[in-house]
Amino acid sequence: MTELVHTRAELAAARDGLTGTVGVVMTMGALHSGHETLLRAARERADHVLVTIFVNPLQFGPDEDFNRYPRTLDVDLEICRRAGVAVVFAPVVTELYPEGKPRVWVDPGQLGEELEGQSRPGFFHGVLTVVLKLLHVTRPDLAFFGEKDYQQLTLVRRMVGDLDVPVEIVGVPTVREPDGLALSSRNRYLSPDERAAALNLSGALRAGAAAAAVGADAGAVLAAAHAAFESGPSGARLDYLVLTDSDLEPGPTAGPARMLVAAWVGTTRLIDNTSVQLAPYS
After folding, report:
1. Which fold has domain 185-274?
2. Least C-beta-crowded within 10 Å: which of 30, 93, 123, 276?
């Protein structure tokens, strides 16, 4: 039986009743198959799973879709029940931010100003601030985050390590549609033509990974990805397409790497990424 709680006091009481290992999955609701994969991963590792559903206003810019973001609590609760979730914490904004915007925020450092942080100034300040608050109030042993938001996953790991937060951060691979599109709550905004154009993101990643698999160097890998993006269906406007090392540091030349892409499709902004193995110089 899944228990729904809305206040910190209710959460504390429910959390105190969970014995053994507790895993948390933090979401903004509008749950889909990607979230279900996170829930299954949590169930495999933890005795109890706690889910947070909270559309965090701190991570939305003035021109972004906070009010438009889908709220589907009843459907989300049914998904959680089917997945065997013990507790769902779904607070209102004033429960987490009783005095309005907090006066102290988490600074994500230099990486937080790059890629998504450059396109969405202040985004990771808001993300890390709410993640740290939710880690404190849920007190998990494990926290599960999807690799689709790879920069977020990397920054959460850095924050937990740098601030000595006693939790293990677990990354879960991206879930995709059969045609390769990464699952996202924002996909529901896409028209049929925009849905076709959205495949340019995953197509570019596949082309880059394929080039790496046959021994191409970093420059050729990135060139292949750009070419694939530009040759795909019209309607996608590239924001960035980069190749970094697995910790999102620039300039990889060999070994494990990460390719990340972001693009506008109509009025919807999408992101994706994939791992790439760069061949050593001969």
Report:
1. Pantoate--beta-alanine Ligase; Chain: A,domain 2 (3.30.1300)
2. 93
- Whether 35 sits among the annotated catalytic residues: the reply is yes
What pLDDT, in 10s, does the model give residues 260-277? Answer: 999 999 999 999 999 999
Q: What is the pTM of this model?
A: 0.95
**Where do the domains of the chain lie?**
3-172, 185-274
pLDDT digits 0-9 by tens, 216-231 = 999 999 999 999 999 9
**CATH number of this structure's domain 3-172:** 3.40.50.620
Catalytic residue among 35, 125, 136, 226: 35
Closest CA to 116 of 147, 150, 160: 150
pLDDT in tens, 113-168: 999 999 999 999 999 999 999 999 999 999 999 999 999 999 999 999 999 999 99
Q: How many helices (H) and strands (E) does the chain have?
A: 9, 9
